Amino acid sequence: MGITPIISLVIFITGLSIYFLLTSKGRFWLKSLVIKIKGQGWRFRDGQLNYLRSRFSKTITISAIIMVAVIAGNSVSAQVTGSPPVSLKSVSVPEPDNLGDFVKDKVAAIKLGKALFWDMQVGSDGQTSCASCHFHAGADNRSKNQINPGLLRVNADGTPNPDTAFNVGGAPNYQLTKEDFPFHKLSNPNDSTTVVSDRNDISSSQGAFNTKFVNVIPGSAEDQVTNTPDPVFNVGGTNVRRVQARNTPTVINAAFNFRNFWDGKAQNIFNGVNPFGLRDPNASLVKAPNPKQLEFVKVSLNNSSLASQAVGPPLSSSELSADGRTFQKIGDKFGRIGQISLSDLLQGLLSINGTSLPRDLAQKLSRLQPLAKQVVHPQDSVLGADSKSPQPGLNYSSYNQLIQAAFKPEWWDSKLLIQVDAQGIRTFVKHPDYSSKTQEYKLLDYNFSLFFGLAIQLYEATLIANDTPYDRFLEGNTSALTVQQQQGKKLFEGKGCIGCHSGLELTGASVSSVAQTGRIRRGPFGAKPPEDTGFFNIGVRPATDDLGLGGNDHLSGNGQGNSLSEARLAQLGKFKNLLGQDPPILTPPLNSSEAVIADGAFKAPGLRNVELTAPYFHNGGQATLEQVVDFYNRGGDFGVLPPLNLSPDEKQQLVAFLKGLTDERVLHEKAPFDHPQLFVPNGHPGNSTSVTNDGTGNATDSLLEIPAVGKDGGTGTPNFLN
Fold it and tell me: Which has the closest alpha carbon to 229: 123, 315, 69, 345?
């Protein structure tokens, strides 16, 4: 072969290499090619490529080696610096390895999960559902009676020191305004030292009234409860709905998280019972090898932090439940009689009472018609075929039918009962003894937490927003982002934002991130202290306002339990016992006495649809993306982050890029983000000085209707304070 063909071939290969390295589509094909090379076993031997030697002349082989070397060089470089992303569409949604041991029909389980998620009958009041706090882009846009005064505050030694004073609005049932934000006000938003005012309140979501559970009422969506005076959430002595102690995060794309909740309490391993995974040695279910035989079993489903999360709120006395809506109490007990004290209220906020089983909820829901109080759109992408529209509900007489269609019979089909006595001792019996000292449960009721958690996880796993302008840009559509947004993208990737919001999921707390770096790692700055992967203290508030990851799981008898920080568990030698695996080996090795990043640290959220999910941060203290960018630009409010020193134009570019992370399907509630009708409590008639007593000691509700939407979507719901 002459010199001209060789030169032409080299030019061709060079141009092809440039295409591979500098374009999004090229990088996609490059990644595929490298994977294929590895898979087919192309190897150097004696200075040659065996695979190529049999097919090409020496000259072409040399040229191909040049190209492969360039590709390999880029691949190695990419692995060091972070490989260019394709789009979120290329990331598989994590799923339990052993899901098939429990679920027999995944489609039916998703249907069950969507019904349970949106059904207002789940709440003790027959009015609140999981969706009550997650109906707007997976989050909450309500702005009246949405303030918590800071009940998670602690002293310097970690002992509780709840703040009960409402600094924002002066009292509960306050209507927030734009002027209330940010909660930490500065005269110069670029200078953290110019403090005008500081308020430690939290903008969050209203949940349940303070009530004590008495019993379920067969055929009724409302539980039998006793109203109890609330020392914090009341206006003039009339109870108002309690407000959560942390801002509500979106459930959209939460399926990618290794752990869930802001503090990581919802474990990656679902034990079928509560949020605490392997941390709870008492968590067990009952299995029927055949209908005439029962046995206690422990279950473990990985990649299931959404299921772990889902089983918390239905038992929380500050979210969906009357206090004590369970029978058996293993470990900490919720049930208290008489007027609630401040310590009782604090315990309700700190604990999800995870060692109890939601069997009372099961006895109610399993016999109710699904979504009996809500219209389901006939074009609903999941539930439409079963809609009774224009009448409310689905064409099922009870949830039992949905459960039996979705789950394998060994988890719900048995002729025996599980009897639980007053001490929590469980035995299998053929017939109830009708004693006031015992309670019998059908197998389906006893295992209801398994069905509830897994079904909602499988539904939420369909709520993936991966068709944003940003994703389309990564796929090669260079016009998907405006010039300003592309400039913002460069700032996002170059100014350190990507340090916490990394990977295609835009969060370091993802399953893929943990798989790559381990559950704990060393921080990148200073003394490089150990930290839980994906959890950061960025100086939103002092750590004593809310310990976050530095708190405990409250599982032990003294109400404290073990640290939520996995780095601290490793220091204490508890990692393997509580998490079921050896801790990662750090460099340098973990020292039992070194400082750990945990107090005041929180999970980094994904950023898709962030334009729609105000207010921001775990305290909900910022109302706009501009305020968020100002926060990062000045290095946070409490001295943790390095300032970004952005110009006004750069700030706008960064905000524009963040708005390029919005999936239009979410904005317009198109499938899979369509939903049934919902009525959400939206504060109470009156204001923060006067409400109307409904005759029971509780304030009357203002209800906001969220209309049913089918697969083609609608107009959506307005953003926070719009």
Answer: 345
**Least confident stretch, 61-65, 257-261, 680-684:** 61-65
Q: How far is CA 321 from the centre of its chain?
A: 20
Task: Please answer whether residues 464 and 666 qualify as being in contact, where contact means their C-beta atoms are separated by less than 8 angstroms.
Answer: no
CA 607/CA 514 separation, integer angstroms: 18
- DSSP conformation class of 416: -
Distances from the Cα of 427 to the Cα of 144, 356, 398, 424, 494, angstroms:
48, 17, 27, 10, 61
Of 108, 134, 278, 274, the closest CA to residue 205 belongs to: 134
**What is the pTM for the complete model shown?**
0.85
pLDDT tens digits for range 553-604: 988 755 679 999 999 999 999 999 999 999 999 999 999 999 999 999 999 9
Torsion angle, alpha carbons of 419, 425, 428, 431, to 10: -30
DSSP state of 74: H
Q: Which two tokens stand for residue 422?
A: 């007053």
Q: What is the rounded CA–CA span in Å between residue 253 and residue 462?
A: 9
Task: For the beta carbon of residue 542, count every other beta carbon within 10 angstroms.
Answer: 15
CB 266 within 8 A of CB 259: yes
Can you tell me the distance from the alpha carbon of 579 to that of 31, in angstroms, rounded to the nearest whole number? 34
pLDDT of residue 556: 74
- Whose tokens are 């315990």? That residue is 347
Query: pLDDT tens digits, residue range 136-155?
Result: 999 999 999 999 999 999 99
CA distance 301 to 685: 45
**CA nearest 673: which of 103, 117, 151, 1?**
117
pLDDT digits (tens, 9 = 90+) for 95-144: 999 999 999 999 999 999 999 999 999 998 999 999 999 999 999 999 99
* C-alpha R_g of the chain: 27
